[in-house]
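Researcher: Structure prediction, please.
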Amino acid sequence: MNQTTFSVTKVGYTMTVIVQQIGSDLLLNITGGDHPHIGTVTTFGRHTPLATVRFPSHDGRVHKDDVLAAVIAQQIKQQVTGSCTITAGVHVDQISQQQINAAAGMAEALGQQISTWLAVQPVTSGAPQYYKDTEQPR
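Model: Predicted structure follows.
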């Protein structure tokens, strides 16, 4: 399993993504700001569309961190050979409009870093082996 971390800091806060390559699958954890959390879970595969679960936030609304996940997913989708799961949770206390406006660009910068890393991280696990219809476990 290969793992790495990337961060981007702009307008007073940092956004970080931990990337884990698990076999042919990817697990990304995007966090940042004053209260990192898991606000959304987004999944997709090379031939599977994005699907997202949004968890309730502290004030009764739902988290919108999947917007960040979607930016990154768009950049790496063609490099994903298995499935990809992205958890995301960035909260900046009393966030300013300037900080909101910077978020997509920060996610894009993270996506570029991930894409560059994936280009030099070949999938090293072989394909899983299954029994044929005529075979049974011994």
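Model: The longest helix spans residues 97-119.
Researcher: Thanks, that helps.
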